[in-house]
Every structure is written in structure tokens, then in C-alpha cells.
């Protein structure tokens, strides 16, 4: 991370980050090393980098684990090289929050088995793809071939299988859940979110925004206790691959304009209008 791009960046916090890159330190030891109290360090580190020191350390371990797996190391070897005392620590220390088992960290989805299909929705076609753990992609568009190309580009090393949506017992209910969400009908379905620790925090926060409401990028950053990370929040929203179920369409600019949307601003506008209409009591719409 380039702290030159961060207003009022604190060199002591950058020093703390560098120390975490080279060794594992608890909050007390880290604060003593850079001359900050543990509480002050915790708060300021999150403001500057979008993560607590412990979350940053967990993300660094995961990055080391991913690198080892991509280089062909055995899982057990990669786990210990990354600093995990046991395989279970991977999940205690953040991998479970990323929604993937260790083998699935390999580049391009290597080791993943993904079933996918197309479904007609209120906003046109949607490509829905799922691993055994949950939905990993909901992409909106008008060109079925383009949607498939994007999926294959996203997971070039995964095993991809197109299935008949009505005949696959695993995928069928997930397709229906996506169609229901796009039609403003209630429902729930497990999702598999694939991203960094900070992206995970943003996406989890998105799923807490009620339908019919919006937040600005700055408001979402503030809710994560990272008030200077509005741009990073915007990048995390743009990286979301699961449309509607992870409702990045509910985040707008501070001036009330729509901002960006991976699947086109007309769809973002349509989603917001539909959710607002559903939220308005019938007697007020009359």
C-alpha cells in the first residue's frame, strides 16, 4: 500500500505495517516498538489502512499461504511456512472469512468445481455460478456468450460445468433465489465470497444495508471505522462479483449521484427504484 496517496499518513503507522510484514507482533509489543499506545495504534492503524493490526497480520499470512500454494507447495508445508501453527488456525485466523478452503486460493480458481447456468430475470439475463459452498458469481447482462466469457476469464483454471437450471438439484434453488432477489421477493442463499480481508469487510457491510436504503462510500467507510478509506471501499464495491445478493448497488456518491456499477448504471438505477417502491407503503403509492 502506498501511503503517499493517503492524506495525513502517519510514519509511525507505516513503520508498524513494515514490522508486521517481517514478524508477528501483538498489539502491545507493536505499539511499544513505534511509540504509540495499543488503543491509539489500533484506532489509527484501522483509519489509515482499513484493517486492524491483527487483521493485517492475518491477511499477510493468507497472502503467504496463497503464494506457496501457487508455487506448488503441499498444503501442509504452505500452512506452516505461512506461520500457521496448525491447519485449523487457517480458519480461525481468516481463511474461513474469505469463504474458501486453502486449495482454492490457487490462481484462477484452480481446484474449484463451479456449476453455472443462465436465468431470465426482471433485469434481463443473469449468469449464476456456484461452488459446493455457495454462489460465487451473479453477473448481469444481455449477451449470454459475453457472460460466459467473463466467467471463464474470472476462473480460468477452475472446472466449469454448465448445467440445466431446472434439472440440477444443487443449482436450481440458488437460481430461484437470485431470480427472487431481482424481482424484489425475499429469500436467502449461501454465497462464497472470494476476496481480501478488507473486501470481505466491505461486502459484509453491504449485506447489512436494508433494501430501499443507500449509503455513500464515505458513510460505508466510516461504518468500518476506516473514515479515510472511501476510495478503497469504492474499489471493493467494484470488485464484487455477486450482484444483488451482495448489494453494491446500494452505495452511491456523497452528492447523491449513482457513482459506478459493474453491470451498468441503468441496472443500478432500476434496482434502487424497485427497492424504494417496495419499501414505500401501498397507501403512500396510491
Q: Major beta sheet, specifics? A: 4 strands, mixed
Distance between the termini: 52 Å
Unreliable runs: 1-7, 91-103, 281-286
Helix content: 40-55%
H and E order = HHHHHHEEEHEHHEHHEHH
Which structural class do the helices and strands define? alpha/beta
SS field, number of helical segments: 13
Query: Mean pLDDT, as a whole number?
Result: 78
Tell me, briefly, the overall form. Answer: flat
How many DSSP E strands?
6
For the largest beta sheet, what order do the strands appear in spatially? 3-2-1-4
Rg over alpha carbons:
21 Å
Strand percent estimate? 5-15%
Structure, explained:
This protein has helices spanning 11-22, 27-34, 38-49, 53-70, 75-81, 87-92, 144-154, 171-182, 197-206, 217-223, 230-239, 265-279, 282-285; strands spanning 113-121, 124-130, 135-141, 159-162, 215-216, 251-252. By secondary structure, the protein is an alpha/beta fold. The strands form 2 sheets. A 4-stranded mixed β-sheet has the order 3-2-1-4. A two-stranded parallel sheet has the order 5-6. The longest helix is centred in the first third of the chain and has 18 residues, at 53-70. The chain is flat and about 60 Å long. 36% of the residues are buried.
Question: Quick gist of this model?
Answer:
The chain is of the alpha/beta class and 286 residues long. The chain has helices at 11-22, 27-34, 38-49, 53-70, 75-81, 87-92, 144-154, 171-182, 197-206, 217-223, 230-239, 265-279, 282-285, and strands spanning 113-121, 124-130, 135-141, 159-162, 215-216, 251-252.
Amino acid at each position: 500500500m502506498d501511503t503517499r496517496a493517503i492524506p495525513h499518513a502517519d510514519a509511525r503507522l507505516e513503520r508498524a505495517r513494515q514490522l508486521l510484514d517481517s514478524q508477528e507482533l501483538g498489539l502491545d509489543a507493536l505499539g511499544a516498538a513505534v511509540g504509540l499506545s495499543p488503543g491509539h495504534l489500533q484506532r489509527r492503524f484501522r483509519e489509515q489502512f482499513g484493517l486492524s493490526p491483527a487483521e493485517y497480520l492475518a491477511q499477510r499470512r493468507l497472502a503467504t499461504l496463497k503464494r506457496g500454494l501457487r508455487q506448488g507447495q503441499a498444503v501442509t508445508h504452505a500452512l506452516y511456512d505461512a506461520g500457521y501453527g496448525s491447519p485449523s488456525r487457517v480458519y480461525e485466523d481468516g481463511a474461513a472469512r474469505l469463504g474458501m478452503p486453502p486449495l482454492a486460493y490457487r490462481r484462477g480458481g484452480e481446484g474449484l468445481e463451479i456449476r453455472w447456468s443462465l436465468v431470465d430475470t426482471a433485469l434481463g439475463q443473469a449468469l449464476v455460478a456456484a461452488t459446493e459452498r455457495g454462489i460465487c458469481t451473479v453477473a448481469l447482462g444481455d449477451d449470454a456468450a459475453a457472460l460466459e466469457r467473463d466467467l471463464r476469464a474470472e476462473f480460468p483454471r477452475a472446472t466449469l460445468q454448465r448445467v440445466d437450471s431446472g434439472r440440477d438439484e444443487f443449482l436450481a434453488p440458488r437460481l430461484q433465489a437470485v431470480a427472487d432477489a431481482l424481482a424484489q421477493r425475499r429469500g436467502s442463499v449461501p454465497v462464497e465470497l472470494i476476496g481480501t480481508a478488507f473486501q470481505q469487510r466491505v461486502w459484509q457491510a453491504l449485506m447489512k444495508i436494508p433494501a430501499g436504503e443507500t449509503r455513500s462510500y464515505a458513510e460505508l467507510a466510516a461504518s468500518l471505522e476506516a473514515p479515510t478509506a472511501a476510495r478503497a471501499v469504492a474499489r471493493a464495491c467494484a470488485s464484487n462479483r455477486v450482484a444483488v445478493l451482495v448489494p453494491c448497488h446500494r452505495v452511491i456518491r456523497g452528492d447523491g449521484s449513482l457513482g459506478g456499477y459493474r453491470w451498468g448504471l441503468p441496472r443500478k438505477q432500476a434496482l434502487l427504484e424497485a427497492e424504494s417502491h417496495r419499501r414505500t407503503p401501498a397507501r403512500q403509492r396510491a
